[in-house]
Amino acid sequence: MAEAQGKLSGRPGICFVTRGPGATNAAIGVHTAFQDSTPMILFVGQVASDQRDREAFQEIDYRQMFGPGTLGLAKWVGEVHSAERLPEYISRAFHTAMQGRPGPVVLVLPEDMLTQAIAAPVLPRVEPVRAWPAPGGLRDLRTLLLAAERPFVIAGGSGWDAEAGAALQRFAENWQLPVGCGFRFQDTFDNRHPLYAGDVGIGINPKLAARIAAADLVIALGVRLGEMTTGGYTLLQAPRPRQRLVHIHSGPEELGRVYAADLMLQASMACAAKALESIAAPATVAWAGSAAQAHAEYEANQLADVVAPLDMSQVVKTMQRLLPPDTIYTNGAGNYSGWLHRFCRYHGLQHHGRTQLAPTSGAMGYGLPAAVAAALLHPERMVLNLTGDGDFLMNGQELATATGYGARKLISVVVDNGTYGTIRMHQERDYPGRVSGSDLFNPDFAALARAYGWRADHVTQTAEFESALARAIEAGTPTLLHLRLSADVSTSRTTLTAIRDTALQRVANGAARVWLWLSARVCAQRLIGCARPCSTGWARTWRAGVASMRLQARVHWVLKRPRAGQPRCAWWSKMPACHSSWSV
Ligand SMILES: Cc1ncc(C[n+]2csc(CCOP(=O)(O)OP(=O)(O)O)c2C)c(N)n1
Ligand SMILES: [Mg+2]
Q: Where are the alpha helices (DSSP H) in 344-418?
């Protein structure tokens, strides 16, 4: 919830937890804030100073646990030993959380320090110091743009405000640049704008992926260029992409961290876009028309085959049709989120601020608490949480928080497919037909929600969704919609059956190849009258070679038993044991 508040407000969300189990419980939120560059401060209790290092009750060394910042949890961990210095530490925590690349800070509060009475000064409200891009860098960027033929902008990350969102749009318009949004930062650029090309994340539109791969200049604006935004570092090859790369980011430590960009500019996003819109554009650009084509491909990707009885693309489109434009959408992790990413059109920061709360860390359980936080922070706005069944079960108890604190315009749509569908998808793809631990044994989510004081409805067919959602909006009280979806409907593009069939085909093809190879060798060996079935050219490594020999000899032995008196290939059995997957 604190992370979501940080995302929505741009100022640190505040979270207080007890020591030990409280801190470990909060770790997933800290990690989420780190990967999303969200300002957040976690205050953690600590054992009294005179008990330290005894592994006293619930004691943990939080500097070891959460720090240092380079390891990917907290940006900074401070431990306050004197109550007199609390203002200094808290002021630093706010500055650190908001400045440079925003992120989470952990402040540790030993028990004895908490009861001291002090007369420390109250420090002024912290406003983050912001960095503008260097003017020389802007000139270089202009030169790169003028030399480009197929430029592309990927925008996202944190630290934006409404003005910066509007400035980004003007920059794109001035230069007619196609713009994609980084993974789970889809609200950075208005998805309805004719220059919008789509989201650059999991399940990316293949045409968009091809466009980025074929670009000759990529301007990464605010995004970290992580694994999800770069298609596993393939759209932009690490460390030296094929495309020319301009990387603009608020954290100097992110610049050059993975990519050797052609131009790197350190700037806060609130300033960067305003600087970019001041770069003078020529009357015409070499790539005129390509942005319109990119947008047409985005629109074409909005079309999908009809799925019966429950069509998730229609569910998302119905949501957008019925819900007000400033609705905040939240989700966690799971294949279900793919429908939201593909079909929800976020409106751009200049219109309603952030409207997408979603973890780039892929933390399941994020969406519901984020939605509760959003509903309490913005009681005038609708908040819609789309969640998987596995995802919901991670933090479903937050229904009580919503009820207890009087959230109203809050809807949670649970996509119940009875499985950790993402994991099942991977199982079918790599080990077809071998399902392991991915089934879920779900409650009646609607009944569960009613027990928490929520309204609830079941939906099993596309046609039922619209009226159920309309009732939820009308009700003005938290409502859970329990959607039952066939587990076979794996993603917005394919089914489990198709994934399994393809994988089985691959396995069959592989087996056929091995069989042909073995048969060919056996035939060759018969032809040349060789007693040894295994001679040369087998596998590259010793272990694989040993394994293939054993396999070949075994198959030979089973299928082509040698004639009496003829020496059988027994020497292979003297080979050392082999532990490769080829073992037979
Ligand atoms: C806290 C956490 N645990 C585990 C994972 C790994 N994981 C990613 S998606 C997923 C399954 C999601 O299941 P569900 O919410 O039912 O969505 P579905 O894929 O079925 O649509 C899992 C286990 C994760 N991302 N986060
Ligand atoms: Mg599921």
A: 349-352, 367-377, 389-395, 398-404
- Per-residue pLDDT tens digits of the chain, which is 584 residues long: 999 999 999 999 999 999 999 999 999 999 999 999 999 999 999 999 999 999 999 999 999 999 877 788 999 999 999 999 999 999 999 999 999 999 999 999 999 998 999 999 999 999 999 999 999 999 999 999 999 999 999 999 999 999 999 999 999 999 999 999 999 999 999 999 999 999 999 999 999 999 999 999 999 999 999 999 999 999 999 999 999 999 999 999 999 999 999 999 999 999 999 999 999 999 999 999 999 999 999 999 999 999 999 999 999 999 999 999 999 999 999 999 999 999 999 999 999 999 999 999 999 999 999 999 999 999 999 999 999 999 999 999 999 999 999 999 999 999 999 999 999 999 999 999 999 999 999 999 999 999 999 999 999 999 999 999 999 999 999 999 999 999 999 999 999 999 999 999 999 998 888 888 888 887 777 777 655 555 455 555 456 555 655 665 565 444 444 333 333 333 333 333 222 222 22
| Ligand 1 in reach of 375 Cβ (< 6 A) | no
Tell how far the Cα of 182 is from the centroid of ligand 2, in angstroms: 25
d(CA 205, CA 397): 35
Q: For the whole model, what pTM was predicted?
A: 0.89
Ligand located closest to 424 CA: 1
Domains of the chain: 2-115 (3.40.50.970), 135-300 (3.40.50.1220), 312-494 (3.40.50.970), 517-581 (no CATH)
Give the length of the chain. 584
Ligand 1 centroid distance, CA of 438 (Å): 10
Determine the distance separating the centroid of ligand 2 and the alpha carbon of 28, expressed in angstroms: 20
Ligand 1 atom at minimum distance from 388 CA: 15
* Phi then psi dihedrals of residue 540, to 5 deg: -75, -40
Task: Tell which atom from ligand 1 comes closest to the C-alpha of 487.
Answer: 20
Asked if residue 331 lies in contact with residue 346, where contact means CB atoms within 8 angstroms, the answer is no
Q: Which of 207, 223, 203 is nearest to 215 (CA)?
A: 207
> Crossing angle, helix 269-276 and helix 162-175, to 10 degrees?
30
Residue 178 CB–ligand 1 contact under 6 Å: no
Q: How far apart are CA 376 and CA 56, in angstroms?
A: 37
